[in-house]
Amino acid sequence: MRVSVSHKEGMKFEAKTEKSSFIIDCPVISPVEYFLAGIITCSATDLVMIPKNQGKSVTDLVVDGDVVRAEEHPRKFVKLHLTYSFHSDADDVTAARWVMASVETYCSTINTIRETTEISYTITHNGKRIRENEKVISGGGAKIDMGEIEACPS
Q1: 3-class DSSP state of 141
Q2: pTM for the full model?
Q3: Distance between CA atoms of residues 60 and 83, nearest Å
Q4: What is the CATH number of domain 30-135?
Q5: Which of 33, 58, 79, 147 is deepest in the core (most CB within 10 A)?
């Protein structure tokens, strides 16, 4: 993947990708907001494609993202909470698995920040809250004490 960004005027930049181009107009929309929108869009595309590949459909999909950033520069993301709301022709367990597949495996942007960011999610499926503040347990962002684990000697 290759992207080229060139200065246009004032605080406007043009980003050119291998497929298209778009204008980044700072401070109207900051690069960090574009970054967060990219994270959310990455997961949202999974929530359309995974069901489609299973012969199911998703409608009325909205994914909201709330970020807490560090106070000190470079002000990295510390916490990210994603709220998924959608309707589908699947049961609640399947709908939850789609979200988990996205955040745990398929969404490359989430997986890019997961080692430094505590990630959680809430799911409303067919008008019913089916998951609330579930934490993504993999990655360095989440601090979970698993206790003593018996293992084979190395």
Answers
A1: coil
A2: 0.85
A3: 13
A4: 3.30.300.20
A5: 58
